[in-house]
């Protein structure tokens, strides 16, 4: 089952990095019909999950792999059928379970946030397929000591390493602390996804998106690496750093359409 192997490999990497401790974090992936057919019959009908507060009309007919609520990423590789589910969006409010959650489980409590983010990113990029949520240590630490301003936060991360502006030229969006697992934070996150592929939840974690598992995972890696560098040097006497002109030079060399108004 190539689909399940690829998803659980990424989940295992996230756990080993320490970014998804205990049952923290979740992942959703738009699966192709042939990928799903290798795992289970497309007409399977194990259970239904109803979300009255969100409109899933734009993604009706799509298949999703979604991690389960309360599930530990460290267990997904050895027992995927208990910890992960494959679902079909039957109508504007209903997911039909085709495979997984064999212990009676259900999708992550943040499934509405994931689905709303998928809807928004598909508007910007039809090739979009992945939403990952995790708890990167250094990035969370930054939200305790930095202004929660998307432009300023982005500037700090861009200036930590040459790679940053290349990997996320649109920057990162920041949301202040909000109660997780509900519709309000889902709508707020999806709204930010209109212009960003990554959204930071203050004192909580990070949502990243991508065309495939590697792209979304690589975005997390790069953002967290920049945050780690910042937390290592903050409070020290900085002798030299990347300047605004340096960032513009990188952008020109790599033909980047970076977010304007931050270093201009």
Description of the structure:
It is built from ten helices and nine strands. With 264 residues, it is of the alpha+beta class. The chain has two domains: 1-108, Class II aldolase/adducin N-terminal domain (L-fuculose-1-phosphate Aldolase), CATH 3.40.225; 115-264, Class II aldolase/adducin N-terminal domain (L-fuculose-1-phosphate Aldolase, 3-Layer(aba) Sandwich), CATH 3.40.225.10. It has a nine-stranded mixed sheet, sandwiched between helices. The radius of gyration is 19 Å and the shape is elongated. The mean pLDDT is 96.
In short:
With 264 residues, the protein is an alpha+beta fold. Helix content is 39%, strand content 18%. The chain has helices at 2-16, 33-37, 80-83, 111-124, 137-145, 150-158, 163-167, 183-192, 213-233, 244-253; strands at residues 26-31, 47-50, 63-67, 84-91, 94-100, 130-134, 173-175, 198-201, 205-210.
Features:
264 residues, alpha+beta, L-fuculose-1-phosphate Aldolase, 2 domains, 39% helix
Question: In total, how many domains does the architecture comprise?
Answer: 2
Walk across the major sheet and give the strand order. 2-5-4-3-1-6-9-8-7
The count of DSSP E runs of length 2 or more, i.e. the number of strands, is 9
What is the CATH domain class of the largest domain? Answer: Alpha Beta
- Tell me the CATH superfamily of the largest domain: Class II aldolase/adducin N-terminal domain
* Run of helices and strands: HEHEEHEEHEHHHEHEEHH
Write down the Rg.
19 Å
Low-confidence stretches: none
Mean pLDDT: 96
Approximate strand percentage: 15-25%
